Structures are given as structure tokens and as C-alpha cells.
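Section 4.2 – Deliverable D4.2 (structural model, holo form)

The reporting period included a commitment to supply a predicted holo structure for the target in complex with beta-D-glucopyranose. Inputs used:
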Amino acid sequence: MGALGFPAVSERPSRVTGKHGESEPGPSGRGSGQATRRSPSGTAEGQEREATTELEFPDGFVWGTATAAHQIEGGNWNNDWWAWEHDPASGCAEPSGDACDSWNRWEDDIALVGDLGLGTYRFSVEWSRIEPEDGEWSAATVAHYRRQCEALLARGIEPTVTFHHFTTPRWLAARGGWEDPASADRFAAFCGRLAAELGDVVRRVCTINEPNIVATMGWLLGMFPPGKSDHDLRLRVNDVFVDAHRKAVEAIRTAAPGVPVGLTLSMTDYQATDGGESRRERMLRDMEDVFLEASEGDDFLGVQVYTRMRLGPQGILPAESGVPVLDMGYEYWPQALEACLRRAWSITGGRVPLLVTENGIGTGDDLQRIGFVQAALEGVLRCVADGLDVGGYFYWSLLDNFEWAFGYRPRFGLVAVDRRTFVREPKPSAAWFSSVARANALVPSS
Ligand code: BGC
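Output (C-alpha cells):
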């Protein structure tokens, strides 16, 4: 899974607390700060000629940053995650509480995105606020999200809106949530109504964020709600999510024709060492391919990548010696983005345009963040040079926010948030990312 700290050493369910402290001292993991100048033609002459232009992204490349409702809004007490965070048996580090208070401070967030000069902002709506009970629709909540979209549009920023980002209303979770095949139709009905009400102000819709992570963490590893460990159930949840996505796409297209719609998928650079090949195949099948295949016909596929995972005959291998381990318990491996983009492109037969809807690093070392993103973007450029249709890059995340079972410790933000006053303070990486986005090209970090 990309981001969420898949158990580093074994495939057995484990609790968050057990996953830290496996880090080995090693290089800082900072990038070189130098972009690779590589010629698509591969010739020395080509390198000479193109050296100044190859750090540029194609015209129209979209630059953005991303957040999710439960991680920033605060007070989202009516969903399955709130209950989970407050269950001492769940192993969660701490509850989300007020998060970044973005329910009240969303205008500050939008101003930050505007100051960064980004073309799009990806955020999610909280279903449990829009439908606090089955069949009760909160017009005031939808109006709240409409105001956010309108404020973005007024600044020339495209709203990219995710309709489901990990959290499920309590009333739906109570009747089986994503185990229940009926949830697919229920979700599609929600999507259709919301798209009808917001279709004129959204510019891109992501149906379900990382269904593979929700299914695996919730139904196999027991680290997300509902905390189950059942192989067959996990496969069933995969299928319900595929059905929910397909039905949601249809409902959104009917209600809001012309708005691009797609899935956002967590991808990992799975690498087999001798004897780990069949494990890798299985992992790819259940974690990725079932969803990559389900993206057929979509307007885009959101690729979300954070790291690699090495698999040996006995299971997941620990970090390789010399490779830094991040706060999330996995390796610093910015090269993973390029590998996953290439794989997504190949499995989908090059028929679905790609967007990097999430890539980032949880670190207290902001220079390490710049090095990570720089290296990841160099990989994006190589993909583009090889003809892959990669249309944009969203950095995860705008803010230091609630990192699910890990609480507030991992810091993914371009912007720090004071946990007591909620005052936002951009980090140096924010200025660097802004200069890359404005130049539409990799620029040296200063
Ligand atoms: C999720 C985010 C999460 C990020 C970093 C992704 O898997 O979509 O909600 O915060 O990774 O772990």
C-alpha cells in the first residue's frame, strides 16, 4: 500500500505501535538536487540539444496538492473511523479530534493553494456529514462544499473532489459496510445525487480513494475499521468496491456529463527477490490488477505511490541495509513512482490517461521532502519522454494532518499546522514545489 505502513516484515496483522523503530541509521535519503537530463532519443547529440528543455513538463500538465475530509476537517464523529480511533483495542495512536479545523478554516487552505500557484486542489467530501442518517440529506453541508468549489474557481483553481476517502457513515458501516454488496448501489445513489448538485462547480471527480487499502487494511490486516482478518471477506470487499466504482462512474456521468471521473489507486513497487515471484504475483493480483482492470473506460486513473515492497519466499522483507526507513515504517524509495506509472500504463494497455493523484513523504526533514519529490518527478519526466500519458501531479499533502492509525506524528505537509492554534505555516518545500509548478519544470532547489 503505498502509504499506510503495511507491516514491514510479515503479512500477519500487526498494530501500529509494532511498526516503528525498525529504521536503520543510513543515508539521509536526500535526493541529489540535480535533475537527470536524459534524452528521449538517447543520443549524445540529443542530450546536448535537449538538455535545457527536458526538465520541462508537457503543456497543460496539472499541478496540485491533496487532502481528505477526515484528515483535516475535524469533528467528523459520525463515521466508522471516529469510532475506530476511540476504540482502545484498535491500536490507533490518537483520535483525529479537531484535525486541522479545516471545516472552519477551509478559506485559509484555499488561499494557501492559491499562493502556491497550483492549478488544482484535491479534497474530499465527508459522506457522513452529507447523509448523517440513511436518507437524510444535509443541504447545508452540500452548500458548504459548493462554497469551497466556488472559492477555488474564483481563484482559477480546479476543484478535484473525492467522493469517498476511507471514511464510511456509521449507519452504513453498521449494516456491513463494504462487505455488503448492496453498498455498491447505495454509494452510487449518493454519488449521483451529489454530482447532480455539484456537477457545475467540480472539474474532476475521484470516486473511491484507494479501495485496495480499505479492503486490505480493514478486512485482512485488521488495522482499519472494521478490524477483520479474513482472506475471503477481503476478496469480497474488493469485488464490492469494483462494483461500487463502476456504478458510481455511471451515476456521475449521467448526473454531471462532461466531468472527468476516475478511481484513485494505491500502488507499490513490488519487487520479488529469489523465490518471491509467486508472492509478488498474488500481491499484484489482489492489491492492484483487479482495480486497474476496473478502470477501463474511465477518464483517468489516479496513481498513488509512496514506496516499494520487497517480497521473498517467506513474505515481506525488511528494509534493505543502507536504505532509510521513514516514520511510516517503510523505505525511502522515490523511484517507486516511475515503476508504478509504467506498470499502470502497461496493465491498462495505455488506454486510460494517468494522473499522479498522490505522492509524498512523511518526514520531519523538509530537505528530504524536496529531494524525494525531485527524484519522483524525474521519474515522471522519463515516463512522459517514453510516451506515457501522465497528465498531472498532486503532492500529498497540503497540510500536516491526521495520518489515520499513526495519528499526527508523520508529517506529509507542505504546510505545518500548529496543533493548538491551527495556524498554518508553509515550509521551504512549499516554496520549492510552487516554483516547480509555476515553471512547469524541475528547478534546482535553493
Ligand atoms: C491515503 C492518504 C494518506 C497517505 C499517506 C494514502 O494512502 O490516501 O489518506 O494520508 O496515503 O499515508
